[in-house]
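agent> Task received from the user: take the single chain below, predict its 3D structure, and emit structure tokens. No templates, no multimer pairing.
agent> Plan: (1) validate residues, (2) run structure prediction, (3) serialize to tokens, (4) report one or two observations.
agent> Step 1 OK, no nonstandard residues flagged.
tool_call: predict_structure(input=
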Amino acid sequence: MYRAIALAIAVGSMPFMAGCAGGMRSGSESMRSEREMTSFRATGNEPDWRLDITDSKLTFLGDYGKTRLETATPAVETTAAFREYTARSGGHELIVRIFDRPCSDTMSGMPHPNEVTVTLDGKRLNGCGGDAGALLKGAEWVVEDINGTGVIDGSRVTLNFSADRRISGRASCNTYTGAYTLTGETLTISKTGVTRMACAPALMRQEDLFLDVLKNVRGFAVGADGALILRAGDGRTVTARRS
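)
tool_result: status=success, residues=243
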């Protein structure tokens, strides 16, 4: 038996601009091939700019769209610290550096997997790039704190974001599953069901709190130590780490 619960997680708008802050990722994650850089997007602010890199084309829009540089995607140069593209077109030179470390949008707070710098004709601009969903997907997240109350010793609360847009985990006593949609502005979780097994009252209270915070989440962040922090609109949080 399942009970339906509606979970809506809005991660803030992801406008045309972004700024960066964040910690380092592991070395194994930082070495990526040029092939993996297809359909990569980065944005920045003050002034607004956007960068798109595909298999065949690199496009840069700067100064609120007044500056446009478009060229065939140049060969990537990979170092231990970053990947670099150098493009020249229309009398402009653009140097792109992509770092594998989390970066937070300075306007919306949306986290991204990459910090990005672009240097256009000697002027450096900072921004964020990559799919925000990459920060959620992968190994299971184990919840270690629910709104400052910790978790009951021996209990297990988890989050799993899969590549096929499913979310699942244990809520304390029962398991839950659903579908999630991540856009440039929001992460929504829907069609979610929870099993109806009864447990000790303390576990049920913890489960109810977790699910209530989860359905009210309005944003998320990834801390410098790698922790996932889900933030509800009323200020409550859920903190989890990779298992």
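agent> Step 4: summary for the user.
The helical segments are 27-30, 201-215.
agent> Done.
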